[in-house]
Design brief:
Length: 426
C-alpha cells in the first residue's frame, strides 16, 4: 500500500465527520502528502513533527470533531502499519507498530493543541473588534453606539463591560448564558461572582495593575459553578478601554466557553495513553511513567502462551475478548498493591511496582497473577485455557533507558518460558 492508497483510506474514514473546506480530491491530495511523511516516520524516519503537522492541517480545513481523532488514530495504528511494513512477515513489524502508536499519540496531542490555537485566534479577533468599536465611545453612555452594539450583541463569544470597582455594567446574551444567568441579572455582579475561587486572587491582582496603569490586559482560564450545578470552563480576556486623555473609562472582557475543549483534551489524552481494546495504559504511557519513577522498582513482564492458536481456532473477535478478560483479571490482581498494569503490545503486558521491597514481593505478585490469569475462561459455551509466562526484575538503580528496563524483564520472562519447556512439571 502506497501513500496515495493510504490517503484514500484516510479520507474515506473521515467521511461524514464534518463538512470540510476542501473537495474530496483536494483532501486526498493533502493527505497523500502527509502519508508520505507518516510512512517514513513509521519506518524510523527522522521527522519528529509529522503527526502534529497532520493534526494542524486537519483542524485548518475544519476537521474539528473528536471523531476525526478516533478515526485517524485507527488509520495510523492499522492502515499505516500495513503501508510501512514490507508484508506481514516483515521482521521490523513490531518496531513499526510501536512507532505507529507513538505517531497516534502525537496526532492526538497535536489535534488538541491545534484546536486551542484556533479558538484563541478567534477569541483575539473578537476582542480586537470589540475594543475597536468601544474605543470610539466618549463615555459609558456611548456604549450603545451602533457599531459596538453590532459586535456586542452578535458575537458568538461572551462580552461584558466592568466598571473600575470590578462590577459588571452589562453583558451580552452569550456571556450570560455561559454563566447560567440572563443579561438582566448580570449588572452589578462582581468579578468574584464570575471567576471561581481558584483564580480570584490572581484576577484581582491583575485588575489592580490595570487600574493603576501598569498593564493593559490580562488573560486567565477558570471554572465557574453555575446555579444549576454545571461547571463551565471559561477562557477570559480583560482589557482596559481609555478615553482620548488616556484615562481608563471601563474594562471589557471577552470570554470563550472552553468546557467542551477541555473535555475533548481530557478524552484525547486518555485515548492517546490507553489501549483502545483493554483500556489499560499503553506502551507510550508506561514509558513516560518510567521516566519519572524513583528506585527501587520492580516489573513483571507477561505474555500469553498459545494466544495465536486461540486467534487461529476461534477468530480474532474471541481473541479480543480473551485479552479484555485478561486485562480485567490483571487489574483485580494488582489493585491491592497500587501497581500499574499496562498492555505494551499484542498479548504482552507489564506490571510496574513502585517502592518495591524486593524480588520476593515480585515473585508473590507473579504467583497471584498466574493464578488469576490461568483460570479457565467460559465463552459462548466453550471453556478456553490461557497459559501465561511471567518474568520479574527488581531494580535498586534504574537502567539508562526505559527500553533497557523492559528488556531485562522480557529476558527474564523468556528464561522462565524456556525453563518450563525443558521441565513441563514447572
Amino acid at each position: 500500500m502506497g501513500s496515495w492508497e493510504l490517503a484514500q483510506r484516510w479520507a474515506a474514514a473521515l467521511d461524514g465527520v464534518v463538512a470540510p473546506t476542501l473537495t474530496r480530491t483536494q483532501i486526498e491530495e493533502m493527505l497523500a502528502a502527509l502519508c508520505t511523511g507518516l510512512i517514513d516516520a513509521a519506518r524510523g524516519g527522522e521527522d519528529p513533527d509529522v503527526a502534529r503537522q497532520a493534526a494542524r492541517m486537519l483542524v485548518a480545513v475544519n476537521y474539528r470533531d473528536p471523531a476525526a481523532v478516533s478515526r485517524t488514530v485507527r488509520v495510523i495504528c492499522e492502515d499505516l502499519v500495513v503501508a510501512a511494513a514490507d508484508g506481514p512477515a516483515d521482521p521490523a513489524l513490531p518496531e513499526i507498530r510501536g512507532r505507529a502508536v507513538g505517531l497516534a499519540a502525537d496526532f492526538a496531542a497535536g489535534f488538541t493543541a491545534a484546536l486551542r490555537s484556533a479558538a484563541l485566534a478567534e477569541q483575539e479577533a473578537t476582542l480586537a473588534a470589540t475594543l475597536a468599536a468601544a474605543s470610539d465611545a466618549e463615555s459609558r453612555r456611548a456604549l450603545s453606539e451602533a457599531r459596538f452594539e453590532a459586535v456586542f450583541d452578535g458575537a458568538l463569544v461572551g462580552i461584558g463591560t466592568v466598571d473600575m470597582t470590578g462590577r459588571v455594567v452589562n453583558c451580552n446574551a452569550t456571556m450570560a448564558e455561559m454563566l447560567g444567568q440572563t443579561p438582566d441579572t448580570m449588572p452589578g455582579r462582581t468579578v468574584a461572582d464570575i471567576l471561581g475561587p481558584q483564580n480570584l486572587n490572581y484576577a484581582f491582582e491583575q485588575l489592580q495593575r490595570m487600574v493603576a496603569g501598569e498593564s493593559e490586559s490580562f488573560r486567565t482560564e477558570t471554572e465557574h459553578l453555575r446555579a444549576d450545578g454545571r461547571i463551565t470552563a471559561i477562557d477570559l480576556s480583560m482589557s482596559a478601554v481609555r478615553d482620548a486623555e488616556g484615562s481608563i473609562q471601563f474594562l471589557i472582557g471577552v470570554a470563550v466557553d472552553v468546557t467542551e475543549r477541555k473535555q475533548l483534551a481530557d478524552q484525547l489524552w486518555h485515548d492517546a495513553n490507553h489501549d483502545a481494546l483493554t483500556g489499560l495504559p499503553n506502551r507510550p504511557h508506561l514509558f513516560n511513567r518510567l521516566t519519572t519513577v524513583e528506585p527501587p522498582i520492580g516489573v513483571c513482564y507477561l505474555d500469553l502462551d498459545g494466544f495465536k492458536e486461540i486467534n487461529d481456532l476461534w477468530g480474532h473477535a474471541v481473541g479480543d475478548r480473551v485479552l479484555r478478560v485478561v486485562a480485567d483479571r490483571m487489574l483485580e490482581a494488582v489493585r491491592p498493591t497500587g501497581a500499574l498494569a499496562a498492555r505494551i503490545g499484542g498479548d504482552e503486558f507489564l506490571v510496574l511496582v513502585e517502592n518495591c521491597s524486593g524480588e520476593a514481593q515480585l515473585v508473590d505478585l507473579a504467583d497471584e497473577l498466574m493464578a488469576a490469569l490461568t483460570a479457565p475462561l467460559e465463552m459462548d459455551g466453550h471453556t478456553l485455557a490461557v497459559g501465561v509466562s511471567i518474568g520479574v526484575a527488581f531494580f535498586e538503580e534504574l537502567p539508562a533507558t526505559a527500553d533497557e528496563l523492559v528488556h531485562a524483564a522480557d529476558a527474564a520472562m523468556y528464561r522462565n518460558k524456556n525453563d518450563a519447556r525443558r521441565d513441563p512439571a514447572r
